[in-house]
Amino acid sequence: MKIIQSKCSYCLKCKAVCLFEAVTVSDGRVIIDESVCFQCGVCKDTCPMEAIFNEQDEQDAGMQTSSGQECKGICLYLESRDDKLSLSALQVIGAARRLQAQSDLKIYAILIGEHTHELASEFARYGVDELWFVEQQGIGYYAEDLRIQWIAELLGIMKPEIVLAGGLRHARSIMAGVAARLHTGLCADCIDVHLDSVQGTLVATRTAFGGSVMASIHMPQHRPQMATLKEGAFEPAEQIEGFCGQLKNWSGHISTSQSFYEVLEVRKIERWLSDFTDSDVIVAVGRGIGKAENLPIILSLAEALGAKVGATRAVVEAGWLDVSHQIGQSGKVVKPRVYIACGISGALQHIVGMEKSATVIAINTDRNAPIFQYASYGFVGELEKIIPRITEYVKGKSLTLKS
Length: 403
Prior knowledge:
Elements: E1 2-3, H1 13-17, E2 23-26, E3 29-32, H2 42-46, E4 52-53, H3 55-61, E5 74-78, E6 80-81, E7 84-85, H4 87-101, E8 107-113, H5 117-123, E9 130-135, H6 144-158, E10 162-166, H7 169-182, E11 186-190, E12 192-195, E13 202-208, E14 213-218, E15 225-229, E16 246-249, E17 281-285, H8 295-305, E18 308-311, H9 313-317, E19 338-342, H10 348-354, E20 359-364, H11 371-374, E21 377-380, H12 383-396
Parallel strand pairs: 5-8, 5-10, 8-9, 9-16, 10-15, 11-15, 17-18, 17-19, 19-20, 20-21
Antiparallel strand pairs: 1-4, 2-3, 6-7, 12-13, 13-14
């Protein structure tokens, strides 16, 4: 926020309404301390002389265009985990390279964190033409306000036509804030993206109306066209031998301030057999198992196979397993070699998350359950009788479906 001193009437209404005590008086002048200001805009709305303006709004206004002629390229927001390349980020690059294959759009990327320089060099080998990174010591993973501010600031300079990010919870939260700041839309949880063959604009596909239909969404009115990509829905990019994109260090060229958030304590949650990123085999459960007390027989089978455990939304909502196990429209997208669906009916919301599995084995008492339409093999019968026999067979043969 800035004050046009020549317009200021010194009424101090802005100082009275500022919740963060960012408005001060010095030498008879009203001043806004940028290191304290959170850009909430209350002072701007209160000023009767219209003497306060938001620099970011003016930059953002430059992003809005109905023609898109001012915008160029695809920009990616890349997340890292523990200073390592994340699978989600590589999937975002993979999606961007698919779009690039349909056009001549350049791929840009933004990376923010404490140790981003080396990580940026690694990402740049995956086909990113320009990687803009911000290295800021002390920036916390949950400093979303700063990340939103910096990403919006960099996008204001870059002016990309398309912005893509991963579908992890953290990235979805940040990109929603960026979209709001840029006064544009955001299509979340997309399972496919491509360019319109006539206009060349982004077409994002996601489920809608509770998962009953697949919607192709066009965003013709505003720029950038923004979308987050559902985890697991896209193939990760592979490194291009001999390729290295250009690195641009923006650490000293963006506005700095203090995050509103303060992390008081970090507790790691033990996730039992629910990290699907490297899973060849998944044993998934639906409400058809009847009750939570039947979970142990499912878990025994998963343990015998060295498999991860998935679940439908109904199971998670019933509290039988936590949300980290959820597969489907509102959960994760997986594509293991073998997917064993236990007591799963086959609703479209769940199918969206597992239909790319190489082999599907369905176990259900209802022979007409839709899951059998997607199954390579099917068992009709009670899980309590079928699954223990499979488990015993696997243990007796020392059989494992690991690669």
